[in-house]
Design a protein that fits this description.
Among the domains are: about 70 residues, Integrase, DNA-binding domain (Double Stranded RNA Binding Domain); about 100 residues, DNA polymerase, domain 1, CATH 1.10.150; about 180 residues, Orthogonal Bundle (hpI Integrase, Chain A); about 100 residues, no CATH class. It is built from 23 helices and 9 strands. The strands form 3 sheets. It has a 4-stranded antiparallel β-sheet with strand order 1-2-3-4, covered by helices on one side. The chain has a 3-stranded antiparallel β-sheet with strand order 5-6-7. It has a two-stranded antiparallel sheet with strand order 8-9. Strand 1 and strand 2 form a beta hairpin. Helix 5 packs across helix 6, helix 9 packs parallel to helix 13 and helix 13 runs antiparallel to helix 14. The termini are far apart.
Length: about 675
């Protein structure tokens, strides 16, 4: 039994009788060469398991590995076997490991009855179209984040794109949106592999950035809706699909999602309560108010015997699905571009916003899942929502029928613009002075909020500082300069929505109010509405990170002293604690400088009244000495100290005016603030 060398291997010949020939190494026990009757030779090892069973395992083919290379690999495997491992069984387990395709099939089988059929159908489509062709053959255990990143890139590049087949179904195009949704689905499937299947310890898709899909900003103005309505009336006389035209009209009048309307059973319509009782939607079981004109449209539709659908298919027992093609033809004739079925839903929301309805009202009309709103409208139709749906539906119906609108409605209330564009709500200037004419006399304390009165809440103080913000005043002037004519005669609807978004993004308020409005004004009950303060910091694992803002839905803070911090237990706790300490000390210093944390509630209220007077006094040209004596009460002191105190008060007041007013809005609460404008 010689040592296996290249000369020994080359001299080996197959057995003439057809038996396998083994040649074992003299120096390493368990290492040898096997020659098959066909002449194929392989390096082998032979060992015993801890249970005493004999195992043989191929190291590699002769010709692929040299004897020395094979000897090195054999030594590693035999050493592992000596330590209790079973290399042969482990190799078979890896080869038989579940692939991504098999995991997807098991996920789909297990998900039946657990998730919605429509969602499952979309998951199946993405699996068969994108996941299986690109990474289906990979084993679940070997899948890495790089593989998923490559999957994302391939889908975005259109590697899985396919032309449209005959019959139903569209073309596969790929793109950023498809890649984002496929990554989200794959992450869910891999989480299923982690638990309960226990195939992997960590989800390789966790933490990967999805491609941004882009925000849909296209909507139809009333002028475009009127144009589309004229084309629809003409198309009905020229043989266009009547179900498609009626469905498009219904989608515009209600803001429903495409399949919510097309797959609508007649049994779900509650004409008496003017609503649709959905048994299943994207947000679950839901009650959706719709306008009286939409109810009348549904009542006028013919009823097919034995068919449950509002929009039945022309052939078969299913519901109608051909809206996209009909809409494409109508928009081509109307000269409208970039209009999809979902744009009709956006157009309904834009019309509601243009009429001045709040975000919560629009969310209720659209069926969005908004905490505290959906639950309120889950059982009976809310009168405010029914009235809102009726008014929006009536406006869109009038545009579709070619009737004129009564006028443009203000973004802050369902009232005429003239009510809010009069002299008392403007930003007139006194000659060449920068002081607005509504600014109170800083010497008269009675003209400022009284901190001793309970109705003076944190929201009052926040508004008093915000309305003195020059940038807020300038943005309101831009809004006040918008043309008051009907929105279908120009582009004022687009400008209106852009300014509304700026109010929310830059100043954290919805239902913006004119700077001249005081907290004693009747409309102050419902506007301005300050956005809830979100958690301020998200501590990442790196100790030198100063923290970045994070927006977590459903998590608000009730006081500026409350801060949410996230820790990652997979990283060193000490490093994270050091980072947290730095951030919290920095935040504490800032809040102390703003006098948000000092003293009791009456103490900070007194300070804020003084700060408001300091801002107004500075704007009117008062000196530091005058401010120190008449506002701060510093009389018997040197001029330098008076100047320092006046400067400190002015800087603190500026911080509250420019940024920290948002914290004041959550102090003291304001339970009297109404959910909806008067008459909504």
């Amino acid at each position: 039994m010689p040592k296996i060398t290249k000369r020994v291997v080359d001299a080996l010949c197959p057995d003439a009788g057809g038996a396998e020939v083994f040649k074992w190494d003299s120096e390493m026990r368990g290492f040898g060469v096997r020659i098959m009757p066909s002449g194929v030779a392989s390096y082998h090892i032979q060992y015993r398991t801890p249970e005493g069973r004999t195992r043989r395992m191929v190291i590699g083919r002769v010709g692929t590995l040299t004897p020395d290379e094979a000897r090195k690999k054999a030594r590693e495997k035999l050493a592992a076997a000596t330590n209790g491992a079973d290399p042969s069984t482990e190799r078979r387990a890896v080869r038989k490991a579940m692939t991504v395709s098999e995991l997807c099939d098991q996920y789909v089988a297990d998900a039946k009855g657990r998730i919605k059929e429509s969602t499952l159908a979309m998951d199946k489509s993405r699996i068969e179209t994108h996941v299986k062709p690109l990474i289906g053959k990979l084993t679940v255990r070997s899948l890495t984040a790089s593989d998923i990143e490559r999957l994302k890139s391939d889908i975005m590049a259109g590697k899985t794109a396919k032309p449209r087949k005959k019959g139903r179904g569209g073309a596969v195009t790929g793109g950023r949106g498809v890649a984002a949704r496929t990554m989200g689905m794959l992450g869910t499937i891999l989480e299923y592999a982690r638990h309960p299947l226990n195939l992997i310890k960590d989800n390789p898709a966790r933490g990967l950035k999805k491609p941004s899909e882009g925000r849909q900003r296209r909507f139809l103005s009333l002028e475009e809706i009127a144009n589309l309505g004229a084309v629809m009336r003409q198309a009905e006389t020229m043989g266009e699909n009547d179900s498609g035209v009626t469905a498009i009209r219904f989608l515009l009048m209600t803001g429903l999602r495409r399949m919510e309307a097309l797959a609508l059973p007649r049994d779900w319509i509650d004409a008496r309560n003017q609503c649709i009782r959905f048994h299943d939607t994207k947000s679950g079981t839901q009650l959706r108010p719709i306008g009286a004109n939409a109810i009348a449209l549904l009542k006028a539709l013919p009823v097919s015997e034995g068919c449950p659908w509002v929009f039945p298919a022309k052939r078969g027992k299913g519901h109608y699905v051909g809206v996209p093609k009909v809409l494409e033809r109508l928009c081509a004739n109307a000269g409208l571009q970039g209009v999809t079925v979902h744009v009709l839903r956006h157009s309904f929301a834009a019309a509601a916003a243009e009429m001045g309805f709040s975000e919560l009202t629009i969310a209720g009309l659209l069926g969005h899942s908004v905490p505290g709103v959906t639950a309120r409208y889950a059982h009976i139709p809310d009168s405010a929502l029914v009235a809102a749906a009726d008014r929006v539906c009536a406006r869109i119906t009038a545009a579709l029928n070619g009737h004129g609108s009564e006028g443009r409605w203000n973004c802050c209330a369902g009232r005429r613009d003239a009510e809010f564009r009069g002299p008392d709500m403007s930003l007139k200037k006194k000659g060449s002075s920068k002081e607005p004419d509504w600014l109170p006399d800083w010497k008269d304390v009675a003209k400022y909020p009284d901190p001793k009165k309970k109705k003076v809440s944190g929201r009052v103080w926040g508004w008093e500082f915000l309305r003195r913000n020059p940038e807020y005043q300038q943005l309101w002037e831009k809004y006040a300069a918008l043309p008051p004519g009907p929105i279908y005669e120009g582009r004022s609807a687009h400008a209106h929505m852009e300014i509304q978004e700026r109010f929310e993004k830059e100043f954290g308020v919805s239902h913006a109010a004119p700077p001249s409005m005081t907290f004693t004004h009747p409309d102050f009950k419902w506007r301005p509405r300050f956005a809830a303060q979100k958690p301020k910091y998200w501590i990442m694992p790196w100790p030198d990170d100063d923290g970045i803002g994070v927006d977590l839905d459903g998590v608000d803070i009730d006081h500026p002293a409350e801060v949410l911090v996230k820790f990652d237990l997979r990283c060193r706790i000490s490093d994270q604690l050091d980072a947290v300490k730095k951030i919290l000390n920095k935040e504490l210093k800032r809040l102390k400088e703003a006098d948000v944390l000092s003293g009791g509630p009456r103490d900070w209220s007194n300070r804020y009244q003084n700060y408001l007077r300091v801002l107004d006094a500075k704007l009117s040209g008062a000196t530091n000495k005058t401010i120190a004596v008449e506002i701060l009460g510093i009389k018997n002191d040197d001029s330098e100290n008076q100047k320092d105190n006046a400067d400190y008060a002015f800087q603190a007041a500026k911080r509250l005016r420019d940024k920290d007013y948002r914290f004041l809005a959550v102090l003291g609460g304001d339970k009297q603030q109404s959910q909806f404008p008067p008459g909504e």
